[in-house]
Amino acid sequence: MKRISLLILFCVCGLCVLQAQSLTRKKVYVCINQGKLKSSTWFFAGTTGTFAYGDEFTVLTEKGSWVEVRGINSNISGWTSASNVTTRQIISTGNRTSASAEELALAGKAYSAEVEKAYIDSSHVDFAAVDLMETYVVSDEEELQFMLDGKLNTGEPE
């Protein structure tokens, strides 16, 4: 009898832990600079809307590493990678956070504008080509066509 009671208690505790880890119905905040909401969990699915750093959503559904979200202050909804959102509140002032998304990304790499300037000054290398390359944007359509032409896996859901 004690074993059965202990087993039931263990199962109930396990279910509570699993439920606590679920993001469903929780408020989440965008933790990347910007992104697109998709109509499905396929990377190249159609875009249903866009989001930006600090935007608030409610998680509707989870599917693997994807979450379906609906905007709290807007009616947009769609799928995004779960890594694009966090349950930790993003503090912002108006349309500007205390640090830009680029500054936050660089800080995560222990990099700053001062470190970059010191490196450029000491290396005597022209970084104009790198700066130009960083301005080039590849569209989803171009990326998909590249993958199809190269017979690469597009990650299409089964």
Structural overview:
This protein has 158 residues and is an alpha+beta fold. It is built from five helices and nine strands; from the N terminus they run αβββββββββαααα. The chain has helices at residues 2-21, 101-108, 113-123, 128-135, 140-149; strands spanning 27-30, 34-38, 47-52, 56-63, 66-71, 77-81, 85-86, 92-93, 96-97. The strands form three sheets. It has a five-stranded antiparallel β-sheet with strand order 6-5-4-1-7, with no helix packed on it. A two-stranded antiparallel ribbon has the order 2-3. The longest helix is centred in the first third of the chain and has 20 residues, at 2-21. The radius of gyration is 21 Å and the shape is extended. The termini are far apart.
Distance between the termini: 46 Å
Tally of DSSP β-strands: 9
* Helix and strand composition category: alpha+beta
Task: Write the H/E string, N to C.
Answer: HEEEEEEEEEHHHH
Q: What level of helicity do the residues show?
A: 25-40%
Nearest-integer average pLDDT: 80
Could you tell me the radius of gyration in angstroms?
A: 21 Å
Tally of helical segments: 5
Low-confidence segments: 15-20
Largest sheet: 5 strands, antiparallel
Strand portion: 25-35%
Strand arrangement, major sheet? 6-5-4-1-7
What is the 3D form?
extended
